């Protein structure tokens, strides 16, 4: 160990926190180096002197009664968090009920919609012309004479009829 | 003690204040140099501790946690006020026949405070933590969130500076002081 190493470890040595190997090296260096020994003594005495002066400077100081009283008063004042929690406890039932009602409206209100259908905003109910294509099935008899017999044939024909109707509701968008 | 802050039970908090209040006050006084301000700083430390007790994780002692709050408040105090505490005038009647040393003691205390306040905040904190709170190098490093090397270099500087600021009192060991010498 050299003097520079000793200076690096001086405070740890005074604290008594050096590992045993380094402690041994340091003691060996101190036994050989007068300057470092003197430096160690000075640091130790400086430290002891400052410790005593700090204690002397402050030994008559006491926490005032007013300060103690204010600290104890602060125990009774709720913290911001406690205040928020208290306000929440008072209003949370009302908010919960409102949330339930809104959920119910949203749930039952959505039942009238087809999947994929987008409900249009309901405006005033005006009559609207709706065009419809309706299949009509017609039975058709046909007769023919074969020799001395009359043969009738029944045929079903499907006609698609386009009709326009007046509706009182707007059609849903699909 | 941590439970006292969380539950805010007055008796428990009162016991905590009795246990650590004066030590905190003395530390605050050494850091700020003014007794009335030190009282306010300690009050504010406890107010803040009551508000933030839920944040205390038990990683350090309750006193160390409270002292950390005090340090932050003191730094804020110095930033806000930029106050220079002059030496208090020595009362002329302080020295009596029964106690002739009283005035000398008042002057010496002021000299120490004046010297301390001439140090920068980081160096003052190091001296108070080392020589009033009796913390070791690694404890100071952990408390301030700096490296061991920084603690040691600040200690060297602070002690040298104190010797220059209070030569009659601190320089009892010759002119070498605490300079680091290399070979």
- Tally the helices of chain B: what do you get? 9
What structural class results from the helix and strand content of chain B?
mainly alpha
Report the C-alpha radius of gyration of chain A, rounded.
51 Å
Number of helices of chain A: 5
| Neighbour order of strands in the largest sheet of chain A | 1-2
How many strands of chain A? Answer: 2
How much of the sequence lies in strands of chain A comes to 15-25%
Look at the helices and sheets of chain A and give the structural class: alpha+beta
> Quaternary arrangement of the chains shown?
heterodimer
Question: In percent, how much strand structure appears in the residues of chain B?
Answer: under 5%
Rg of chain B, please? 19 Å
Globally, the shape of chain A reads elongated
Main pleated sheet of chain B: none
Q: Tell me roughly what share of residues is in helical segments of chain A.
A: 40-55%
Would you kindly provide a written description of the structure presented here, covering whatever features stand out?
- The complex is a heterodimer of chains A (174) and B (183).
- Chain A has 174 residues and is an alpha+beta fold.
- Chain A contains 5 helices and 2 strands, in the order αααααββ.
- Chain A has a two-stranded antiparallel sheet.
- Chain A is elongated and about 155 Å long.
- Chain A starts with a helix and ends in a 7-residue tail after the last strand.
- The mean pLDDT of chain A is 81.
- Chain B has 183 residues and is an all-alpha fold.
- In chain B, 68% of the residues lie in helices and 0% in strands.
- Chain B has 9 helices and no strands.
- The radius of gyration of chain B is 19 Å and the shape is globular.
- The N and C termini of chain B lie far apart (51 Å).
- At the A-B interface, helix 1, helix 3 and helix 4 of A face helix 2, helix 3, helix 5, helix 6 and helix 8 of B.
């Amino acid at each position: 160990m050299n003097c520079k190493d000793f200076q690096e470890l001086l405070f740890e040595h005074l604290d008594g926190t050096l590992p045993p190997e380094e402690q041994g090296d340091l003691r060996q260096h101190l036994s050989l180096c007068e300057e470092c020994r003197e430096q160690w003594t000075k640091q130790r005495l400086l430290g002891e002197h400052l410790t005593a002066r700090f204690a002397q400077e402050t030994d008559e100081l006491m926490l005032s009664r007013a300060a103690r009283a204010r600290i104890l008063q602060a125990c009774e004042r709720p913290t911001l968090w406690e205040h928020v929690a208290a306000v929440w406890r008072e209003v949370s039932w009302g908010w919960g009920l409102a949330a339930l009602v809104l959920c119910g409206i949203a749930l039952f209100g959505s039942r009238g919609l087809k999947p994929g259908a987008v409900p249009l905003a309901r405006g005033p109910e005006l009559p609207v012309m709706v065009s419809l294509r309706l299949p009509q099935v017609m039975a058709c008899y046909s007769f023919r004479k074969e020799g001395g017999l009359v043969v009738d044939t029944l045929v079903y024909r499907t006609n698609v009829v386009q009709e326009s109707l007046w509706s009182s509701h707007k059609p849903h968008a699909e | 003690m941590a439970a006292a802050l969380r539950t805010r039970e007055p008796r428990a908090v009162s016991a905590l204040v009795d246990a650590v209040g004066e030590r905190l006050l003395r530390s605050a006084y050494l850091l700020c140099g003014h007794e009335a301000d030190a009282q306010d700083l300690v009050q504010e430390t406890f107010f803040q501790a009551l508000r933030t007790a839920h944040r205390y994780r038990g990683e350090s002692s309750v006193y160390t946690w409270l002292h950390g709050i005090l340090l932050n408040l003191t730094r804020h105090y110095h930033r806000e006020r930029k106050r220079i505490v002059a030496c208090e005038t020595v009362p002329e009647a302080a020295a009596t026949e029964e106690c002739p040393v009283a005035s000398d003691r008042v002057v010496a205390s002021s000299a120490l405070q004046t010297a301390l306040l001439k140090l920068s905040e980081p160096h003052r904190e190091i001296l108070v933590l080392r020589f009033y709170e009796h913390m070791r190098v690694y404890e100071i490093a952990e408390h301030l969130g700096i490296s061991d090397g920084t603690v040691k270099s600040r200690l060297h500087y602070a002690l040298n500076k104190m010797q220059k600021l209070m030569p009659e009192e601190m320089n009892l060991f010759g002119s070498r002081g605490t300079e680091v010498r290399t070979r």
